[in-house]
């Protein structure tokens, strides 16, 4: 099990690194990279094909198409509705070859179901239940800690390698919406109170970092409801506005973040050791 506790200074440093990353300030841009708008267009075409095959549903309100005009203003069209300027929603500037997109434009969203505690067994097929995202998995599912029978597994929703899981239920509005990526190398089943981001055609580790960044964290907190038990709806998550870098840059960002996070982990260890003196 990963050490999920992060000390104050290390936590602030981690947050700063993630925020710099999603603003395009962590690695230099390469003008030869394919623009992120082309990537979003490919995802849209992939989703259209899945919808045609009845393997996905059209986003509520219709497809979201976002672009920047010659004056530098950002516009969005949903479905067949008229385009509206969304400049008041843009929180910070992003590099020229990046774009803004709604989460519903990043892939397909699929809610989980089932896999009761009584259906977890000592040996069997790998599965993930929502509480484990808070207690067991820090950023990624490297080795599943729970298993279920083949019967339950076959009937459950599946998460492929590099796809994401997002919590829809939690104990507070800070942690709600925590996201992990499947790095296990094979399919795992997932239960209720979880939302999967599938068919994203992107770097899953970058998307995980994006969803766990301070900027998206504020959107998660603002959209959550409840006190003792906090909830976050899939529909609200689908409307989150996020920055998207070119695919090639996503990989460079992940490498930089991973290297930086190793240093923050070392700092966290030193902080804990000092606190024990």
TrEMBL record:
The keyword DNA-binding applies. InterPro entries: Restrct_endonuc_typeI_TRD, Restrct_endonuc_typeI_TRD_sf, Type-I_RE_S_subunit. The keyword Repressor does not apply. Residues 96-262 form the Type I restriction modification DNA specificity domain. Belongs to the type-I restriction system S methylase family. The methyltransferase is composed of M and S polypeptides. This is Type I restriction modification DNA specificity domain-containing protein.
């Amino acid at each position: 099990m990963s050490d999920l506790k992060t000390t104050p200074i290390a936590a602030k440093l981690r947050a700063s690194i993630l925020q710099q990353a999603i603003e395009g300030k962590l690695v230099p841009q390469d003008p030869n990279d394919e623009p992120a708008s082309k990537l979003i267009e490919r995802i849209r075409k992939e989703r259209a094909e899945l919808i045609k095959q009845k393997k996905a549903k059209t986003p509520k309100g219709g497809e979201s198409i976002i672009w920047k005009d010659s004056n530098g203003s950002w516009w969005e069209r949903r479905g067949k509705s008229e385009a509206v300027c969304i400049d008041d929603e843009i929180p910070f500037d992003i590099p020229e070859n990046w774009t803004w997109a709604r989460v519903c434009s990043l892939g397909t969203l699929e809610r989980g179901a089932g896999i009761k505690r009584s259906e977890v067994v000592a040996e069997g097929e790998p599965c993930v239940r929502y509480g484990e995202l808070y207690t067991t998995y820090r950023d990624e599912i490297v080795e599943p800690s729970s298993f279920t029978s083949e019967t339950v597994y076959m009937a459950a929703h599946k998460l492929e390698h590099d796809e994401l899981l997002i919590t829809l239920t939690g104990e507070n509005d800070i942690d709600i919406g925590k996201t992990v990526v499947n790095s296990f190398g094979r399919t795992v089943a997932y239960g209720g109170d979880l939302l999967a981001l599938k068919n994203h055609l992107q770097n899953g580790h970058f998307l995980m970092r994006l969803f766990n960044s301070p900027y998206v964290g504020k959107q998660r907190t603002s959209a959550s409801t409840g006190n003792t038990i906090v909830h976050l709806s899939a529909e609200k998550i689908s409307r989150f506005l996020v920055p998207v870098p070119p695919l090639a840059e996503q990989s460079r960002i992940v490498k930089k973040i991973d290297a930086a996070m190793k240093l923050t982990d070392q700092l966290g260890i030193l902080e804990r050791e000092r606190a024990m003196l």
